[in-house]
Amino acid sequence: MKYQLSNLKYHLPNFSLFLTQIKLLMKKYASLLLLAIFLNGCDDGDLTVDQINFDSVTPTSCIPFVENSLNTDPFIIYKLKPQESLILQVPKTNGAGIVNDPGVKEYDIDNSQYRVLYRAYNGTVSKDNVCGTIPPSSPNVTEEWIGTAGKIKIVTSQVPTETDANDSFRIKAYNHVITFENITFLKPAGPQVETLFEFGTFQTTVTPADLTFQNADTGEAFICDDKTKVYNYSASMTVLVENLSAGLIVNQATPAGQPRTADVTATTNKVVYRNFVPGTGSITTAYPFCLAQPPAVPAVNETWIGASDPLDTKATIEVSTQEVAGKFIHTIVLKNVLLTKGNSSFKLGNVFTLGKVTQ
Question: What is the model's pTM?
Answer without folding.
Answer: 0.83
